[in-house]
Amino acid sequence: MENVGTALAEMTLPQISPLAGEPIDRADAERLAGVLKALADPARLRLLSLIQSAPDGEACVCDLTAPLGLSQPTVSHHLRILTEAGLLEREKRGVWAFYRLVPSAIGTIADLLTPPRKRATKKSPR
Description:
This protein is α+β, with helices and mostly antiparallel strands. The protein has 7 helices and 4 strands, in the order E-H-H-H-E-H-H-E-E-H-H. A hairpin with a 2-residue loop joins strand 3 (88-93) and strand 4. Helix 4 (61-68) packs across helix 5 (72-84). The longest helix is centred in the N-terminal third of the chain and has 14 residues, at 26-39. It is elongated. It starts with a strand and ends in a 6-residue tail after the last helix.
């Protein structure tokens, strides 16, 4: 079993939000921009949604081509970009590769883009 796609977890994202009132340094801005660039595509956003809503929270490329109306190579390309950005994990099972969201990835990005004073006032789920 081969797991790939923990770039976001291994990558050091900025500890400070670009909205915190302090300047974010260039290297941190470039790392965050790379992840946001991976998200900034309608097909990739749909892929994240399709995978998250799949029965087991994972999907194979073969499950994703028809709903997107894209070819297998195109879907694989988008999945690779999301995996390299650390938003998806890839698990190879025989000849098939299954993808699932990295649980903390979207939350990490959301926290970085939420101004600290808004973060502090978020209501916790009951």
